[in-house]
C-alpha cells in the first residue's frame, strides 16, 4: 500500500510485478527519482536498482521461500535455483559471491 501511495504521489506510470518489483513505463528524471527514494526510505522500503543486487535478492527470496515453506526440492539446490530463476547456476553463484562475499551454499547453511 505504501509503495503504491508513494508511486502515485509522484504521478509515475508503473506496474508492480510480484514481490514488490516495480517496472516503470518511462525513465524517471533523476531529481524525481531521488525524491521518491527519500520518501520510500522513510518507510523502511529499500530500493534495489542494480541488476546484480536484484538477482541476489531473487536468489535469497527463492532460498527463503524454499526453507520457510519446507519446499525442499527433490533435485539439487543448484538445479532448483537455476530452473526457478532461469539463469545458469554458474552465473547465480558468481554474482551471489561477488555481492554477498559468501557462497550460496554458505548462505543456506547460516540461514
Offer a few descriptive terms.
mainly alpha; single chain; 111 residues
Can you describe this structure?
By secondary structure, the protein is mostly helical. Helices cover 60% and strands 7% of the residues. The chain folds into 2 domains: 2-42, no CATH class; 51-110. The protein has helices spanning 2-9, 30-42, 51-68, 77-85, 89-100, 104-110; strands spanning 14-17, 21-24. Strands 1-2 form a two-stranded antiparallel ribbon. A hairpin with a 3-residue loop joins strand 1 and strand 2. Helix 3 crosses helix 5. The protein starts with a helix and ends with a helix. This is AraC family transcriptional regulator.
**Coarse structural class:** mainly alpha
Percentage of helical residues? 55-70%
- Tell me about the largest β-sheet: 2 strands, antiparallel
Strand numbers in spatial order across the main sheet: 1-2
Could you give a short description of this structure?
With 111 residues, the chain is mainly α. 60% of the residues lie in helices and 7% in strands. The protein folds into two domains: 2-42, no CATH class; 51-110.
Write the layout of secondary structure elements.
Blueprint: H1 2-9, E1 14-17, E2 21-24, H2 30-42, H3 51-68, H4 77-85, H5 89-100, H6 104-110
Antiparallel strand pairs: 1-2
Amino acid at each position: 500500500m505504501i509503495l503504491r501511495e508513494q508511486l502515485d504521489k509522484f504521478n509515475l506510470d508503473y506496474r508492480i510485478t510480484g514481490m514488490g518489483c516495480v517496472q516503470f513505463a518511462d525513465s524517471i528524471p533523476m531529481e524525481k527519482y531521488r525524491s521518491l527514494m527519500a520518501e520510500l526510505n522513510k518507510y523502511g522500503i529499500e530500493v534495489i536498482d542494480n541488476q546484480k543486487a536484484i538477482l541476489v535478492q531473487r536468489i535469497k527470496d527463492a532460498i527463503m521461500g524454499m526453507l520457510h515453506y519446507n519446499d525442499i526440492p527433490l533435485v539439487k539446490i543448484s538445479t532448483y535455483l537455476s530452473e526457478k530463476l532461469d539463469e545458469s547456476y554458474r552465473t547465480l553463484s558468481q554474482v551471489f559471491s561477488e555481492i554477498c562475499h559468501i557462497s550460496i551454499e554458505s548462505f543456506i547453511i547460516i540461514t
